[in-house]
UniProtKB/TrEMBL annotation:
Its main location: membrane. Keywords: ATP-binding, Membrane, Nucleotide-binding, Transmembrane, Transmembrane helix, Transport. This is ABC transporter domain-containing protein. It is found in: Membrane. The chain crosses the membrane at residues 433-454, 466-487. Residues 71-333 form the ABC transporter domain.
Length: 547
């Protein structure tokens, strides 16, 4: 610590004075106003107002106190309506409306409870179809609230939908990126969309550069993303770019749907290591993991095991041996705790009673544990916590606890960014541009030679009408070439519409449709997987049945 730096206690007092100087506004506070308040109080605003923790950070300065955030969810229950197969019996059976509703519904989440704190990583584990992705979607407000029961609170206060989307980010399982943009360009376009206009271009650029270092992408910053045709960055780097796009505004809560799926052990460990650094900077990180390795488990602070929509364990991974020992199934020495737990859960699911005994034991075990570890520690209110978080450098898209800004930028700026991104992406594919331009030139040449030197007779007038009809039909034929581009843009748009709260003004009305499409696609995939399992089981029974 230098001689000019104040001691930690004085620095904390200065931070508290800055918090008290922040105005209590009834309208959305812009980020520029917050930065000007900090500058007037001696806060250095030459660097971007973000606390960035780099992978190789070895600073000897004491870390800043994180603003305490506590996310709690209780009794989350979610069910969907399934399609019934029509047959003669069901067509003429007399069932009440309630019976039909119960017979047509499938419970995906059943009384899920848990908590997550700032500076920690909560990992949701379970087999395929256990409800991991559904729980992440429920917490991130990506499913319809009418179908979801239960409470979701932050610092003990109900979390509204608009506020949640403004202070959180969601990273999907699939890396949906523009293949012909570089890593740096992808993050720059994300910064132009998500960061408010009051933040200067130099500060946005500095934020992108700091984020590239934080994600460990400096060596790949000038490399294109790539796809099946064009070679680009690796799978682990693509996943980190996807994370960087959604944390460009430094959210308080970060949701991730299986960020390590499809990656090797080293790449998966690097991704979770980045998430640990993000959590240590003052964020709540909640992710779903299929089967983490021993090294990844060491980076996780809390785990939540699910089995067919029920909670079978919720707590620290260090308490797993004690939990299963009390349950009567001690974990052997030198055994991976998560693998043992998942194998035991899978074995119980195949038994006649299922995991009911484990679910009931977890409830009693959690009740005993919570009664022993109950604390009455005081926490900041949600309003003061968000204000304090912004004053300490967390960029929350210009959000205060009073109200939430709907859009970070006006419509014309978003249109300019979209046009710039489209032009940049098209310039990287010259062969496609040449083909389209050549088709227009050839079509024009054919029309000019066929209808050359038309006279002014009635026949010439009729032929001129034919020229117009031919030209219009040719225009519609060339539009079919844009269908592949539309499919690519559709996936990117649905992803960003569902996860980005304050951009894409022109298409903001599609947010609910994007949620419904995501949930419907996941439901259809689960139904198809279950049907395939039933067919395989019937086939195996036919093979091994006695003749």
């Amino acid at each position: 610590m230098s001689h000019n730096d104040p001691p930690p206690s004085r620095r904390d007092d200065q931070d508290d004075r800055r918090i008290s100087m922040l105005p209590t506004l009834r309208v959305s506070t812009k980020l520029g106003q917050i930065l000007r308040i900090g500058a007037s109080d001696g806060l250095d605003t030459s660097n971007p107002a973000h606390h960035v923790v780099e992978l190789g950070e070895t600073s000897t300065k004491p870390p800043r106190r994180n603003v305490p955030f506590f996310l709690s969810f209780n009794d989350l229950t979610y069910s969907v309506v399934t399609r019934r197969e029509m047959n003669f019996t069901t067509s003429f059976s007399r069932e009440t409306a309630a019976e039909k509703k119960l017979s047509n519904s499938k419970i995906l989440l059943n009384g899920i409870c848990g908590e997550a704190k700032d500076g920690e990583i909560l990992a949701v584990l379970g087999a395929s179809g256990s409800g991991k992705s559904t729980l992440i979607d429920a917490l991130a407000n990506r499913i319809r609230r009418e179908s979801l029961k239960g409470t979701l609170t932050l610092n003990g206060e109900p979390l509204e939908s608009r506020l949640l989307k403004a202070i959180s980010a969601y990273v999907m399982q699939d890396d949906i990126l523009y293949p012909m943009l570089t890593v740096e360009e992808t993050l720059i376009f994300s910064a132009k969309f998500r960061l408010p206009r009051s933040l200067s271009g130099s500060k946005k650029r500095a934020r992108v550069e700091a984020l590239i270092d934080q994600l460990g992408l400096r060596n790949a910053a000038k490399t294109v993303i790539g796809d099946e045709v064009h070679r680009g960055i690796s799978g682990g780097e693509r996943r980190r770019v996807s994370i960087g796009i959604d944390i460009i505004h430094d959210p308080i809560i970060l949701f991730l749907d299986e960020p390590t799926s499809g990656l090797d052990s080293t790449s998966a460990f690097m991704v979770v290591k980045v998430l640990q650094r993000i959590a240590q900077s003052g964020s709540i990180v909640i992710m779903s993991v299929h089967q983490p390795s021993y090294r990844i488990l060491g980076l996780v602070d809390r785990v939540l095991f699910l089995s067919k929509g029920h909670t079978v364990y919720n707590g620290s991974p260090l308490n797993l041996p004690l939990f299963f020992s009390d349950f009567g199934h001690p974990i052997p020495e030198n055994e991976n705790r998560t693998e043992f737990a998942l194998d035991l859960i899978r074995e119980l699911e195949g038994s006649p009673r299922g995991t009911k005994s484990l679910v009931e034991f977890n409830k009693s075990w959690q009740t005993t544990k919570n009664s022993r570890n109950r604390s009455n520690s005081k926490r900041l209110s949600l309003k003061n916590a968000i204000r304090a978080s912004i004053s300490r450098g967390k960029l929350v898209s210009g959000t205060t606890s009073g109200s939430v800004a709907i859009f970070a930028n006006p419509c014309w700026i978003e249109m300019m960014v979209l046009a710039e991104r489209n032009i940049t992406n098209s310039k990287r594919m010259p062969e496609l541009f040449v083909v389209r331009f050549g088709a227009v030139i050839v079509t024009g040449f054919i029309l000019a030679t066929v209808f050359w030197k038309l006279d002014n007779t009635p026949r010439g007038v009729q032929e001129r009408l034919s020229v117009l009809a031919f030209a219009m039909s040719t225009t519609f034929y060339t539009c079919a070439e844009s269908l592949p581009v539309f499919l690519q843009e559709r996936s990117v748009s649905f992803n960003k519409l569902a996860s980005c709260p304050n951009s894409t003004r022109a298409c903001s009305g599609l947010n609910e449709k994007a949620k419904e499409a995501t949930t419907l696609e996941r439901q259809m995939a689960q139904e198809a997987m279950e049907k395939e399992k039933k067919k395989q089981l019937a086939k195996d029974m036919t093979i091994f049945s006695p003749t």
